[in-house]
Amino acid sequence: MDQQLAVFVKVAEKQNFSRAAEELHMTQPAVSQYIQALERTMGTTLLERSNKYVRLNKAGEIVYHHAKEILGLYSRMNDLIDDLTNKASGPLSIGASYTFGEYVLPHLIAKMQKKYPLVSPKITIGNTKEIAELILAKQLDVGIVEGHYDNKRLLIEPFANDSMSVVASPQNRLAQMDGEVPISELEKETWIVRENGSGTREAVDKMFSQYRISPKKCLEFGSTQLIKEAVEAGLGISLLSDWAIHKELSLGTLHIIKAKDLIIKRKFSTVLSSPFQTKALKVFLEIIQENQN
C-alpha cells in the first residue's frame, strides 16, 4: 500500500504519468497499474485523465492529503528504528518563521553541519501559522516560531527571548529627535507591518493595543527584508526583531527609535507533533538549546 500511495502522490504532484514514471525510475505502464490498484482498493476513481493533464478529483484530494501524512509517518518510523543503532544522519525537515529562519537559523545549521556532517537539513520558511500547519500535516520534523502560538495537538516549548525595536530611516524626523520619543509621536508615522499569521505582526498588534497606538496609516508587506528596504527608503517605520537588524545598524542604514517606556519582548519556541525524535532531530534541538540567548 505504501508504494501505491507514493506513486499516487508523485502522479498528483507532476500531473503527468510520464514525468512521474521518470522521477520514480519506473515504466509508465507500471505507474498506471499502481494507480489502478489503489483506485480498486479505494472503490472509486481518484484522477481525472485527459490527453493534456491528470488532475485530482474530490476523492483524489482526500486521498492525496492523507497519503502525504501516512508517507511522512512511515518515513519517520523507519528513521526512528534506524537511529537506534546509527549515528546522527539522514534528512531533517526544519520549518521556521521568517525572523528566526532568515537571521538565526543559518548560523545554527552551520554549527550542526560542522559537528554532524551526515545530517541533511531541508529548510522551509513561512509565517508562524504556516509552519504550525505543516507540522500538523507531518510534513516537517520540527518548527521554530516566534511569538505566542497555542495548539493542544502540538508540543510547543519556548527556548529563547527575542527583543524588538522600533526602527526608522536615519533621515526620519523621529531619528532626529533628542532623547526618548513620546509614544504619541509614533502614531503620526506610517507603519509598515507583516501579514496576519506572522509572529512579527502579532507583536505589532499587541504593542498597538498595549500602548494605545493608532497609526495614521499602515502598509502590509510579506517579508522582513522587504520591510527593512522600505524603512531604509523612508516609506515609514516598523517594529522588527533585534536579530533582523544587526547588519543594518552596523551599516547605519537603520536607526532605533527609543520610545519612552516602550519595551517589546517575545519568545522563540520549538514546535513538534510527536515526542519521538530521530537522532538528527535530537542533536538539532540540543544545538538550539546550547545557543539560546
UniProtKB/TrEMBL annotation:
InterPro entries the record matches: LysR_HTH_N, LysR_subst-bd, WH-like_DNA-bd_sf, WH_DNA-bd_sf
Coiled-coil intervals: none
Family matches, as CDD domains: PBP2_CysL_like (cd08420)
One Pfam family it belongs to: HTH_1
Keyword Transcription regulation: yes
Alphabetical keyword list: DNA-binding, Transcription, Transcription regulation
Record bears the keyword Transcription regulation: yes
Domain HTH lysR-type: 1-57
Superkingdom, taxonomy of origin: Bacteria
Similarity comment: Belongs to the LysR transcriptional regulatory family.
Name of protein: LysR family transcriptional regulator
Originating organism: Cytobacillus citreus
